[in-house]
Structures are given as structure tokens and as C-alpha cells.
Amino acid sequence: MIINLYPDEYIYSICARFHFYLGTQLRSASRLIKSYSTLLDMCHLMRPITPSKSLIDAAYLLQTHTLHPYFNHFIPNHKKKEIKNTIMNDRLTNLENSMGFKITNPDLCLCPLCFIEDMHKYGDPYWHRSHQLAGTLVCDTHNIMLLSECPVCGEVLATSTEKIPKVPSLFCSSGHSLECVIPNQNKILLTIACENRLLLDEKVNLDVIEIEEKMKGILLYKEHISNKHTSRNIKVNQKFQAKFSEEYVKRIEDSIQSLKINSIWKKQSIHPIFYVLYMIYFSGSITNFVHEDKYLPWKNMKSWPCPNKVCPNYKQLVVQLVNSEMISGDIYGYFMCPTCGYAYSECDGDNLGTLDIISKGHLWEAKFKELLYREDISFDDMKEILGTTFYWIEKELKKYEDLGLELLLKKLYSKEILENIKTDALINKK
Ligand SMILES: [Zn+2]
Ligand SMILES: [Zn+2]
Ligand SMILES: [Zn+2]
Predict the structure, then answer these.
(1) Residue 408: enclosing H or E segment and its boundaries?
(2) If you measure from the C-alpha of residue 264 to the centroid of ligand 2, how many angstroms do you get, rounded to a whole number?
(3) Rounded to the nearest whole angstrom, what is the distance from the C-alpha of residue 358 to the centroid of ligand 3?
(4) How many angstroms is it from 365 CA to the middle of ligand 2?
(5) 3-class DSSP state for residue 40?
(6) Burial class of residue 93, CB neighbours in 10 A (0-12, 13-18, 19+)
(7) DSSP H/E element including 231
(8) What's the pTM value of the predicted model, to 2 decimals?
(9) Rounded Cα distance, 279 and 29, in Å
(10) pLDDT digits (tens, 9 = 90+) for 101-156
(11) Is the N or the C terminus of the chain less surrounded, counting Cβ atoms within 10 Å?
């Protein structure tokens, strides 16, 4: 008997149909007595249902019939390969730890209209993968509410932890019809379902680290919010709730994770749906969010002139913005010249604020040392050549505690004064 795999069919569904049609013929069926829908047990599922390696392989199954491509977008790039190997090779302990977020085990959902269409098309109903995504409450094809329980008696259709996976049916065990079409009235629910489905495509290019940085950038520089601004954080939470509805937010928070914006500042695991919803919240869609520029107050310029007089690139546009952060409501940018190492910080990005010098850089320090040991160069000359103030000369001098008094005295006077002293001495002698 050949069992076809259907478009968008969920791994649980494949198992259910194999069990339904082949019964005990399932290889290593005992291994199936676990949960069916999580990544954790995916490979237990793949082996027994793979009729032969030449027909279908585990990697194909993982990509086409599981939620792995979706979750994979939210795993940091350097961990993706390792995690995929872990799943494929059945070493699953600690998988959730290394992924950085928990996979929930929700009840299975079905769309009654998809069910009927699948029956007509394939003669076989099945569970759709896109209907099982956390946060998806409506069918994005028919824009009707998905069912996870009988609308009459409340019986759950199927749970992903059941011992034997169930094929979908249009009746509950008490015989109530599940042909229940509730049109979706909420536009945002359809948006979420459509955006969520897009992420089942592994070709979508997302980088979770970049998403997080961008989100923090928008919050810091556009909304002026950091972790400390409790009242402003609360305001975002209220606006977020107004956009997605209180009921929806509560539902996600009860079953998956908190959607409070301050989660982003804490070093805690964040479920993909958090990012998906905030990308929609900030930019309307994931694509818009991806194309949005990283927000920085200095973003209109790429480089700034080097203020270091001894740098070969003095006054050239070479200085780069290396970092920025918000300190009690003010935004600080940190800048450095890659040639000479001169580094300074600047407040608020207006380019008019005072530069706060962090380091004069290695070229300046080397020049300082060279000039310091020259008897013919006074501190006044050094001030001029190095383009600095006595404050910085004094500061740098602290590194040279073993300087001879004679040298120091010589350097205290300019060449002219020294010449005058010499001439005076000569005249006196005469
Ligand atoms: Zn449907
Ligand atoms: Zn019922
Ligand atoms: Zn420089």
C-alpha cells in the first residue's frame, strides 16, 4: 500500500494515517507512544513512516511536513546546523535549551472547509501544518475560525501527546458535527495567519539577532523606551493589546509566553510568535520589518572627520560609529577612527554636542612618547604638535613616572626662552 503525503500535511497527520491504514504494520510502533507534534519527537516519527530511504528521506520530511523551518528562522545562525543535526540524529535531550525557546504542545486544529475540500480532492482528510502554528487562529485560505474542540460539547479534537495519533474527522466522539463555519471578523487574525504561514518557507531570510537589534533600535530611538521606562513600556503594552485585542493577547500569554514588551530587554527565551507579532505591530508585516532601516540617530551619515592632528587621515571622513546606547533618556554614540584608534562619545546625535574623548589612540600615544624624550621639544611645542591641551599632556605624563628631572625642566621652557637664558648667561660671564 502506498500512502501519499499531501501538501501542507503535518507530521502528526502522516503518522495518524499510517497508523489508521496500516495498523500494526508500523515499524517500531512502540516508539510512537510519545508525543507526535513536537520537534522533540520528530525523528521518532520519521523512521517508522519512511517506507524506504530511496522514497523519502528524513531531511525532506523535516523541511516539508514539520514546523522545523518555522522554528529554524528564530534559532541563531551559528546554532542552526547543530540543532538540525541533533534532530536528525535523535539526540534530543536539551534541544529546547539549545534552541533558546520552549516548544508548546497545543491541541490540534482543523479548518472544516479545508477538510471538505481535501476529501473531494484526495478522498482523505488530513491535518494541515499551517493550522498548527502557535498564534494562528484562522484558516488563511478560507478566513474562518479554526476548530480545536467540538463546538457543542467542548471535546478536544486531538492532542499532540495522545498515545495513538488520530486522523481528523468531522464528528466528535459523541457524534456532534464539526462542520462549523465561523467567519473571521478580525482582520489582524488573518494577517497573523498569513504571516505565520510565510515562515514555513525555509527560503525566507530572517536573522533572529538582527530582528532583536532592530526592535531594540526602534524602541530606543523612535519611542525613547528602554527597560527603565516602566510607564512608557506599559503604554506600548496597551497599544499592542489594542491592535491585537485583549482576548487574543491573553490567549497567547496563557498558552505560550508573555507578550509584554519588556521581555525583549531581559535575557530570557523568547518564543517565535513574540517576534512575529511585534514585527507586525511595528511595520505591518514581516517583509516590511525586514526592509526597515536599522534605526540610529546618526544614520544619515556613514563616517565623520578624524579630529586627531597626528593621524594621517586628520579631518578625513574615516571615523565610524561603533556602538550606541541609551543612558537615562539620552542616546550616546561611540565613535572611533580605524586608522589611529582615536575614540570619543557623543550625546544625542545632533553632531553639535561636545565630544567626550575616550582615548587618544595608539598613534597619538606613540607620537607623544617620541616627542617627550626630545630635549629640544618643550611641552608647549608638544601641545601644538599633538593638537591638545595641558590637561591631556599631564594625564599622559602619568604613564612616565621615571622621567629625569633635568629633562622635565628643559621641556618646561620653549626654545626661545632657552636661547635667551643661554645668551643671558653668556653676557653675565663676560
Ligand atoms: Zn480552510
Ligand atoms: Zn461534541
Ligand atoms: Zn584618525
Answers:
(1) helix 405-412
(2) 41
(3) 13
(4) 81
(5) helix
(6) exposed
(7) helix 230-244
(8) 0.70
(9) 41
(10) 777 667 899 999 999 999 999 999 999 999 999 999 999 999 999 999 999 999 99
(11) C
